[in-house]
Recover the amino acids of this structure.
């Protein structure tokens, strides 16, 4: 299953920021994918691997002059993946503190928000849930990695959770996870703090792993399939030289 990105300029920005794969990059990507897998298996409490719907990324460039942020001018990005025929999972990410991307430097506190939603384009957007294919979010994990002038890599944020533990108890849910396409809306986290960055950091890439269970059709006899969607958000960090 091939993910689709929206809008197109952001696709190019994300692709450029992730760089060109090398032998060393392949090893690093394998380690990142293994790390995500370990978090997901620990969250589920078993050793059953989830179905991966997108490959692990290649590292961001090591040249500060070529690091491209995925954020638009308003400090946000929207990434889209088809998890079934015309069934779209959308991840929106936006910066919260500071609100201007140019003010994201290594030394000051930083925070971002994000939301996960599902849209069934086979039915009218106002259709009731009974006419839609249901999609549940069963786990969310966020990893991160820095791009530094020294060539070293740090991980200022590592997080994994059952999304049902992060929302009000009256939110629609089941043993499959949190229902994303209900009248209550999807999954929203208004603010997540990013840890301290090394002084020579010129970019940080947020790496999301979203495990979902998706209904294959509407009505009796439908079945659910599980998959993990990976999304990557490179964010440029302003260095002292750029701020002058």
């Amino acid at each position: 299953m091939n993910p689709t990105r929206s809008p197109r300029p952001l696709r190019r920005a994300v692709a450029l920021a992730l760089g060109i794969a090398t032998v060393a990059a392949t090893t690093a990507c394998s380690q990142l994918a293994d790390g995500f897998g370990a978090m997901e298996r620990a969250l589920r409490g078993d050793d059953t691997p989830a179905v991966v719907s997108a490959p692990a990324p290649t590292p961001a460039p090591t040249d500060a002059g070529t690091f491209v942020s995925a954020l638009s001018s308003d400090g946000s990005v929207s990434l889209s993946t088809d998890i079934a025929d015309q069934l779209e999972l959308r991840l929106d990410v936006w910066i919260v503190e500071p609100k201007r991307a140019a003010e994201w430097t290594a030394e000051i506190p930083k925070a971002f928000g994000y939301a996960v939603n599902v849209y069934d384009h086979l039915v009218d957007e106002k259709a009731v849930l009974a006419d839609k294919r249901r999609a549940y979010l069963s786990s969310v994990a966020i990893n991160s990695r820095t791009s530094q002038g020294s060539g070293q890599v740090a991980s200022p944020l590592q997080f994994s959770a059952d999304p049902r533990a992060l929302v009000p108890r009256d939110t629609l849910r089941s043993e499959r996870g949190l229902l994303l396409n209900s009248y209550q809306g999807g999954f929203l986290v208004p603010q997540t703090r990013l840890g301290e960055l090394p002084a020579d950091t010129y970019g940080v890439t947020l790496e999301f792993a979203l495990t979902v269970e998706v209904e294959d059709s509407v009505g009796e006899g439908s079945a659910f399939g599980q998959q993990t969607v990976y999304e990557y958000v490179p964010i440029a960090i302003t260095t002292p030289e750029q701020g002058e």
Summary: The radius of gyration is 18 Å. Strands lie at 76-84, 87-97, 110-120, 135-148, 159-161, 173-174, 177-179, 187-194, 201-215, 224-236. Residues 23-44 form the longest helix (22 residues). The chain has three helices and ten strands.
